Amino acid sequence: MNLAAWVAKRAHLHPERPILKHDGRIYRNRDFADAVDATARSLAACGLQPGARVVTLMTNTPAFLSVLFACARTGAVLVPLDGKLAWPELERIIRDCTPRLLVYSAVFAQTAAALTGRGLPLVRCLACDDDTLSDPPSPSRDSARASDEA
Questions:
Q1: Residues 98-112: pLDDT tens digits?
Q2: Dihedral sign, Cα of residue 18, residue 21, residue 27, residue 33
Q3: Model-level pTM?
Q4: Contact partners, residue 91, CB within 8 Å, separation at least 6
Q5: How many angstroms separate the CA atoms of 124 and 136, rounded?
């Protein structure tokens, strides 16, 4: 049984049983399996093939676990990065593993933006906010939104 099957099995056998507790929120097996499914769909929509590497710059949250299990479901290889590493170390790891995707938590948005601007072999980046993955805001989209609000 792989990791993704383990989550699905727990959700099927004990859907209401708690699996995680974080910041006062309780995640039940069914809820967590749904989050993993949604994350796996987001990863698949990025065109990831089995064996593709996904680097993460994430905090220790249920969202990270969702990405971990979603990678197992899609066959992607998870490469978690430590946000405390120095730039040369992060660059070396990314160049070495040639990831297709970078998934990052909001707290690492500046680091992710700097990494994508350094010519590293990243095809795409996804921001992770709670349990959802989305394209990061682009500077042009942000300036357009600011002019609309003015």
A1: 999 999 998 998 888
A2: negative
A3: 0.83
A4: 115, 118, 120
A5: 10
